[in-house]
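Quick question, first post here. What does this chain look like in 3D?
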Amino acid sequence: MPETPAAARRSERSRAAILAATAELIREVSYAKLGIEAIAARAGVGKQTIYRWWPSKGAVVFDAMLESDSGPEGPALPDTGDIAADLRQLLRGSVVALTDPGFESFLRAMYIEIQQDAELGAAYRERLLLPQRAAVADRLAAAVAAGELRADLDLELAVDLLLGPAQMRWSLGLGGLTEEYADAALDAALAYLRA
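> Answer (accepted):
Ran it through. C-alpha cells below.
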C-alpha cells in the first residue's frame, strides 16, 4: 500500500501550487477579475486552503510576486567593482520591470492594495521594500569603502535619489520610463554620490 504523504509535505505542495497558479493567472487576467476561486481551481485546492494561509487576494498575489522575484539569498546587487555599471544595471532593470506590459496592471493594482490594506502595506515594507533598500545601501557602502563614492555619503538620501525618480514617474503615470531615462537619472544621482 502506498505511503500517505506527510501533512507538512502536502501543505508545502499545496502552497507551492497556489503560488504557481497565482503567478500564472497574474499574466492572464486583470487584478480586478482575478478571484480566489480561479486560483483555487488552477492550483487544484479548495478556497479554504488558500484562506488558511492568506487573508486576502492581495496577500496571496503579493506572495506569488515575491516568490517569482526573489532569490534564495534575498535581494542583492551585483558588485563588479564598478559602482556606476552596477547601478546602471539596477535602474535599467527597474524600468524594465515597471513597464512590462504583461505585469504593469498587476503592479498598479498591488500598489493600490498596499495603500488601502495596512497589514499588506506592512508586509510590503518588511518583506520587499526595506530589504531592497538595504541591498542598495549595502552596495553603496561597499563603493564608499572602495573609494568609488564620497566618504560622507548619506546612504538613505542616496537610495532615495537612485530609486525615487523612476518610482515617481511610474506611480504618477508620467511615462517616459526608458533606458535613456534610467541612465540620465543615474548620471544626476552620481553627481551627488561622487561629489
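The mean pLDDT is 89.
The radius of gyration is 20 Å.
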